[in-house]
Amino acid sequence: MTDVAREAGVSVATVSRTLAGNYPVSEETRARVMAAVKSLHYVVNVHAKALSGRVAGPVALVIKDITGPSLAHVAAGVEQEAASLGRLSLVCATHDDSARENDLVQLMREQHAAAVVLVGSAAPDESYQRRMSEYARALDAAGSRLVLVGRPAPAPGLPVTVVDYDNRGGAFQATSHLLASGHRSVLFLGGEAGLNSPDERRAGYLDALRAHGVALRAEALDTQGPYTRVSGYARTRDALRNGVEFTAVFAASDMVALGALAALREAGRSVPDDVSVVGFDDVPFATDLTPALTTIRVPYEELGRTAVRLALTRRDAMSDDDRVVLGTQLIIRKSVRRLAWQ
Question: What is the mean pLDDT of residues 169-177?
Fold first, then answer.
């Protein structure tokens, strides 16, 4: 700033006032200062401005993996809403490492992030509750806000915003659609046990069976594993090889459904003529599959937008639990065949 003042022939205070825009200066003086700024490639010290409360902090998105299609859409929503509010957005990946997550949250606190958005399912155990409590209080003390998207809600009374979606209701819709179409043996390709989202989707599957008066015909129909194509393929292949009888598959993610479709095709089973398939997520490739996949649409971009909007506009609710649950929607395409009642 001293160099800019010397180049423009004004005082350091005048440079500061010109750049801050909070004190009247003549147009001639402003032009000289800005010309000096340009010629010297001067950059404002953002950290100093942040400490003085004169800069809008960024929105930090902390996710497990930046390559997954669902998380990518959450990231898009965060970026779009942050940009519309004049904020920079930062994306960080933890690779499912809690120590790295802790380091990233601390770094974002030091960078004066306006909000830190943590995305992705987690095990709601004591360790998780303790970490979220520490994050919330530390960020709140720094004037920031912790936002949890698709994660377990922490203990009441913490300065946290929770944005979730109806996993259980969506799974209920998916399974009910198959049952209402005449299927009575539905292979469930669930997620990893102990994590909040997979557990909720499994609960929705079981809710639907009970609501329709259908017993779980075999324990082998209720499977758990990662939300990957490889897992969906392996579990469907194993069910076929082991003689498990089913006329439909409910895959708790579209990536798992993709693997299931490959295993069924390999075994000579036609979809939907021989086996019907329903997914969960409605990622972009769902419409490009043959047949187009019936699935549950999750409003991933809106989750990101809502997370940013609540964090940046509800600054007067720091001591309250803010929680929003977005709905899911059954999208009917071509992968389910109606059977006669069994």
Answer: 97
